[in-house]
Design goal:
alpha+beta; Butyryl-Coa Dehydrogenase, subunit A, domain 1; Butyryl-CoA Dehydrogenase, subunit A, domain 2; Butyryl-CoA Dehydrogenase, subunit A, domain 3; 3 domains; four-stranded antiparallel beta sheet; three-stranded mixed beta sheet; about 50% helix; globular
Length: about 400
């Protein structure tokens, strides 16, 4: 890779990066095209991730995790993105869901589920988005009413990453009558033999084909009240807001690796592709375009490195994470588009990585909160600051 070393890297993290790179090259890259065709990896892949120590790396060792921090997550995220493999979203499983459990779960819940997540025995997903409510979490309609010592859950979720293989689904549901976010709670569903739980078909996405994504349906699904995340109802929206900066930094962190892979792939191509008797790299337009792309990749890395350092000090705020998420995901789309253009017609062929990157990158501007919403969050913080 052409990027400079990140200021938060150290020798142990370099070793982890090497382990992750080797794992993805060995276990994922040879299978990626088949997984793309099937819209999912095989379930055993998760067990291999666990055996390699790549799951729940930032969860304390007492709960079966790797005892690391966000830097360890970042190293694995970037290794996977640079390798251009999906095959299951470790970002969702380890980077997001595991931390909801760590932050808000009871001691019994953490000891019950986290060790099995770290081994790959349980695959985790979080079910927020609904057919009629995406970014607007306060409009969610899935309901959970109490009936004795159980919740009875009804509703539907869509675009659920890891939904096909998920053994553990964190369902955001409305447990109270209050409007907006006040009545939301997160209830953990163990899907194995769960009556009233149904997976829809694997969704046919524009890109990220090897990451399984599907709809989930709940029909009078009874879940023990002890599976409520946290000690009381109505905390779901607060829990979501607490963890979203981390989720948005994960998107930006992966984007840095994608940017660099795009430039690296293109640089290799233009140095061997000949046009009018010379390589593409000798043409001024090519040189200027790659200079622009590398500059954007370098700026993105510097921005994200600063965010990682802030996160390590628990100083990463909501507006800054929103800036990182929208700007990096937008930049990824711009750079990949410019790089694809330098490939000419070959850039439109899926056998070339740049074509797959083009399709895979687009959703980055949507998930984790659309970029329009990110700008609104930033604008609100500016407005609040101006009003003093």
């Amino acid at each position: 890779m052409l990027q400079r070393p990140s200021p938060w890297m150290n020798e142990d993290l370099e070793l982890l990066a090497d382990t992750a790179r080797r794992f993805y090259e060995r276990e994922a890259v040879p299978n990626e095209m088949r997984w793309r065709a099937e819209h999912k990896a095989e379930r055993e892949y998760w067990n291999k991730l666990g055996a390699a120590g790549l799951l729940c790396i930032s969860i304390p060792e007492e709960y079966g995790g790797g005892g690391g921090d966000f830097r360890h997550d970042a190293v694995i995220i970037q290794a996977q993105n640079y390798a251009l493999v999906g095959g299951g979203s470790n970002n969702v499983h380890s980077g997001i869901v595991a931390h909801y459990l760590l932050q808000f779960g009871t001691e019994e819940q953490k000891r019950r589920w986290l060790p099995r997540m770290a081994k790959g025995e349980l695959v985790a997903a979080i079910a927020m988005t609904e057919p009629g409510a995406g970014t607007d979490l306060q409009a969610l309609r899935t309901s959970a009413r109490k009936d004795g010592d159980h919740y009875v859950i009804n509703g539907a979720k869509t675009f659920i990453t890891n939904g096909w293989h998920a053994d553990l689904v964190f369902v955001v549901a409305r447990t109270g009558q209050e409007k907006g976010g006040k009545g939301l709670s997160i209830i953990v569903v163990e899907t194995n033999n769960q009556e009233g739980y149904r997976r829809g078909k694997l969704l046919d996405k524009i890109g990220q084909h090897s990451t399984d994504t599907c709809e989930l349906f709940f029909d009078e699904m009874r879940v023990p009240c002890e599976n409520l995340l946290g000690p009381q109802e109505g905390q779901g929206f607060i829990q979501l807001m607490n963890q979203l900066p981390r989720e948005r930094l994960i998107v930006a962190t992966g984007g840095v690796a994608t940017l660099q892979r795009a430039v690296t792939e293109t640089l290799a191509y233009v140095n061997q592709r000949k046009v009018f008797g010379n390589t593409l790299m000798k043409m001024q337009n090519t040189r200027f375009k790659l200079a622009e792309c590398q500059t954007l990749a370098t700026v993105a890395q510097s921005f994200v490195d600063d965010c990682v350092l802030r996160a390590m000090k628990n100083e990463l705020d909501l507006p800054t994470s929103a800036m990182a998420k929208w700007w990096v995901s937008d930049t990824v789309c711009k750079v990949v588009d410019e790089c694809l253009q330098l490939f000419g017609g070959f850039g439109y062929m899926n056998e070339y990585p740049i074509a797959r990157m083009y399709a895979d990158a687009r959703v980055g501007r949507i998930y984790g909160g659309s970029n329009e919403v990110m700008k609104e969050l930033i604008a609100r913080s500016l407005e609040a600051h101006a009003l003093g």
